[in-house]
Amino acid sequence: MCKILFFWYVTCILSVEPATLDGKVQQYFSSDVFKALQKQWQGNRKSFENAIVLALKDNYGYRGMNVYVRRAADSFRMAKGLFLTDNVVDVLLFDVSLTSIPHLNMPEVTFALASNVLKVEAGLSQMIVQSSYMLFRNQSDILSTVPQNPYEKSPFAYEQVDNTGMLAIVADDCKLVGFALAKMSGQSINLGHDTFQVKDCTFSVEISSKSQGIKKPVIAPYFSKKQGKELEFMLTKPIRGELMPKLQAAVFTYVNTSLIFGDHLAKFREYQNGIFKETTKNTTRFVRNINNVTLAYQEESIEMEPLEVSYNYKCPDGICKLSISVYNVTLNGLDTLYSAQSGGPFKFQTPMIAEAIRFNSIMVNGHLSFDDHNFKAEHEFFAEIKDVTVNFQIDLTKYEPTFDFMNWRTLEHSVIEMETHVHDRRAANAFVNGYLINKVPNVLEGHLLDMYVKFRNSTDQKLSNVNVYCH
């Protein structure tokens, strides 16, 4: 069995014959063919970047460029439920939806074709997210007067805010950042794996209670850094869904590689295809080995953290307590990882590889209980999350990969009553959905990192049958 130490990780996981993959990528980005491609592209680069910027300004968020972005009826719905807490009040959101696609402010495009990358940075116009809400707050935490500094207290603790109502989340100063891998195909360029995401938003809330009457809605800044990242993650999906078709259409419209490179196109394309094939082969091996280690350590399933929310409220008997618990939760499917084969090598300051790796199907089952002063309800829930995408990226000068959760294609779940009638099935579904959004990304990232470390460092006999592809 191979001694799987740090050096062996480099030579076994990321190796190709007769040289290591990092050596081949380094050679690619220092070769005469690369320099010739870069030189020819450089003469046209600025005009193409400007054309793409204009196309995004004119068409992002609008119909244009003969591109029809197919949308489902609920395409702007970000989540069926989301659970928030500010350490004073717990908030359950229902049917969280983006009202409309924002516009791009001052987009900047960097198109380094020789380095296989197209980078976009842009500001986003104000976005509004709508939902209804339910509060879990102790009677003793309710504030009868509004503090002068809105940052000092939770706006959901104000007495004028009802326990249920409508909520608008306002996102300002957001940025859209990321890149897509660019590969020549035919007479144009295909965009592959991308890392576009919404970042750096400033959030505030506008809370409208059902019994508000003539009272003004409560408007205040809200969301911790962690919760803000969850919202940014959910905002990314509809925004990226609008961006990628329009970005690809702009590239197809303006870039004709046959006119740019002439007789050299075939050689440039063949050289680029060769290094993409090498990286695809090796990232596929990497994913296969992660699955093998997962099975070797019998970690294809994992127990997830429980969650309990409780609060005291006024009732006919005085002060009563209600608690909601999620427990005995098991996540399965950690051995279903596969490579989307849409990534490849690229270079900013240093040569790197990026790939979309996905869990084909993640299954989650657990229990949910409601315990009030006059009733107790026990439920079981099941969830299936399809095509969960993680950005696998490695800097070839450091050999330490990063795993960043990106999105999933679908999340479907159901709550089944076990003992009593579901008092509020909508609340139960929203609570489970919020629990999954809060917990699953960290579990998957942690699993991948743990399996990588185990494979890199272990000499355990459990790995004696793992195919490590040593050369």
Compact overview of the structure:
It is built from 7 helices and 19 strands. The chain is 31% helix and 38% strand.
What's the number of domains? 2
Helix fraction bin: 25-40%
From the helix content, strand content and strand pairing, which structural class follows?
A: alpha+beta
Low-confidence stretches: 1-18, 459-471
Shape summary:
globular
- CATH topology of the largest domain, which one? Bactericidal permeability-increasing protein, domain 1
Question: Strand count, sense and closure of the main sheet?
Answer: 8 strands, antiparallel
Helical segment count: 7
Note the run of SSEs as H and E.
HHHEEEEEEEEEEEHHHEEEEEEEEH
Mean pLDDT: 86
How many individual β-strands? 19
User: What is the CATH architecture annotation of the largest domain?
Assistant: Super Roll
Distance between the termini: 13 Å
Strand content bin: 35-45%
Radius of gyration: 26 Å
CATH class of the largest domain, anyone? Alpha Beta
Description of the molecule:
- By secondary structure, the protein is of the alpha+beta class.
- The protein has 2 domains: 31-255, Super Roll (Bactericidal permeability-increasing protein, domain 1); 284-463, Bactericidal permeability-increasing protein, domain 1 (Super Roll), CATH 3.15.10.
- The chain has helices at residues 6-13, 21-28, 32-59, 225-254, 257-261, 265-296, 425-457; strands at 77-85, 90-98, 104-112, 117-124, 127-136, 164-172, 175-185, 188-194, 197-199, 202-209, 218-221, 301-303, 307-315, 318-332, 337-339, 344-347, 351-371, 376-395, 401-417.
- The strands form 3 sheets. Strands 12, 13, 14, 15, 16, 17, 18 and 19 form an 8-stranded antiparallel sheet that branches. A 6-stranded antiparallel sheet has the order 1-2-5-6-10-11. Strands 3, 4, 7, 8 and 9 form a 5-stranded antiparallel sheet that branches.
- Strand 7 and strand 8 form a beta hairpin.
- Helix 2 runs antiparallel to helix 6, helix 3 crosses helix 4 and helix 6 (265-296) packs across helix 7 (425-457).
- The longest helix has 33 residues, at 425-457.
- It starts with 5 loop residues before the first helix and ends in a 14-residue tail after the last helix.
- The model is unreliable at 1-18 and 459-471 (pLDDT under 50).
- Keywords: Signal.
